[in-house]
Amino acid sequence: MYQELIDKKKSLAVIGLGYVGLPIALEFAKKIKVIGFDINAERIELMKNNIDPSNELDAAAFENCDIEFTNQLAVLKTANFFIVAVPTPVDANNIPDLIPVKRASETIGKVIKQGDCVVFESTVYPGCTEEDCVPIIEKFSGLKMNEDYKIGYSPERINPGDKEHTITTITKVVSGCCDESLDLIAKVYELVVKAGVHKASSIKVAEAAKIIENTQRDLNIALMNELSIIFDKMNINTFEVLEAAGTKWNFLKFQPGLVGGHCIGVDPYYLTYKSKQLGYDSQVILAGREINDGMSAYVAKKVLQFIIQQNGNVKESKVLIMGATFKENVSDIRNSKVADVVKELKSFSLQVDVTDPNASSEELNHEYGFTLTKEIGTAYDAVIITVPHNEYKELTDQYFASITKEHALIADLKGSFRGKITSRSYWSL
Hints:
The chain is 38% helix and 14% strand. The protein is of the alpha/beta class and 429 residues long. It folds into two domains: 2-211, Rossmann fold; 294-427, NAD(P)-binding Rossmann-like Domain (Rossmann fold, 3-Layer(aba) Sandwich). The N and C termini lie far apart (53 Å). The relative contact order is 0.08.
């Protein structure tokens, strides 16, 4: 199949064209024939016009690409190598929501043919590909893995907003259901991944590798957040402590902050869910999750306490939140913990305005029930800088003074303005 892909006699399809799927599809389309499949017709029309609905890629990324965008199964059926890159979120109870990946498996089952190959990139718990997805594919196709088609897993490593670490520059972990599939999958990804591939010994190993990448980051940030809470009680600035400790060569430079998004704040729950099914209740991982999930309430409480001490009249107090996305310099609001800060503050009857240069007010309203303020006021009792977008970095002490009352607090969660705020009270994690 590899040579036929190179010769464009066969095509590769990417199912799910979000933050992960679209960059992959476009990168492959520079080398081979690609079908970009997504069930959202509006998104398909945007991409046909060289517009990335996720606002990560510019129009130039679509140039010189042999790609057909579609939501039609008849078109998808013409492909022979399939990559599944649909989201894998958790529900309100932090239980893995496999509906997108299961529906994608149904779709694969309806279009797959003898000799085809399927690779899942969606983050799942070890065993999900073979235990949950394969049975669905085989139910709808009537084909058998290994005998009739090949399957593999290659975890995505897309980092939204990061222009340096991209699909081509990060080593790609690949795995397959047999030696033949592993070799094929590795060769296909080597077409676009300049950093090369790492062949995992099994699909489960590749699944586990992905999930511990973000679990490790989650736990390290949880440690920083707990240290921040402790140091705050000691009247020590956490970022000054980290700066000093960071002079040691082997100190890991993590920082405190809100942990949201569709990866770090979600993936650990996939691992602990599977662990519980196997009879082991996670202790360390869930402890880290509890700390990180509680940081929104902690931030809101700190701001509220300051306002009560300075103003006293909470109902007449106003707070401006700067940043609504889950991280800096992206438009993605999925699982944004800023929404929890807004909810907490409003529960105390505070008036809350939210601003963000990248987020969609319509999406925020649909997802969380609040919109972006159209005009920033001039008499805030507190400003919370939750996400350090580039657009905020040039702001000055004079600017913050112009939009706040004299007794106001500037709560700078990521420490971006440490040492720069002198006319107002300052606090950071």
